[in-house]
Amino acid sequence: MQVLLVDDDEFGRAHMRDLLADDGYEVIDLAGGEAALRYLEGARPAVIVLDVMMAPLTGFDLLREVRRRETPPPVLLVSGAGALGAQTRARIGGAAGYLTKDRLRHPADGLCARVRQALGA
Length: 121
Description:
By secondary structure, this protein is α/β, with parallel strands linked by helices. The protein has helices spanning 10-22, 33-40, 59-67, 84-92, 111-118, and strands spanning 2-6, 26-30, 47-51, 75-79, 97-100. Helix 3 (59-67) links the parallel strand 3 (47-51) and strand 4 (75-79).
């Protein structure tokens, strides 16, 4: 299954890419929102993982764009901050989940577990 991973932080993106690849996913990793939108013009990943704090397009901006598409894939938002307002905004915006970066490796609800959950596996 293909996962589109979008994060403008190279270290964070590499860390998440490695976690997902080790769990058997084909990972397409991109460094920003504009690149992600271009990629999505011709691709249909099974799930999308977006960092919240990117510029100029944020994860919330990309979530909104993805949700406008016919049959959008599930989207997970990832952030270094666990602010309740951001989590609520993610749910209202239609995200399949919100995960803080300090929990990426957690076996029960880390990144790979959340991706499996979003895929219904």
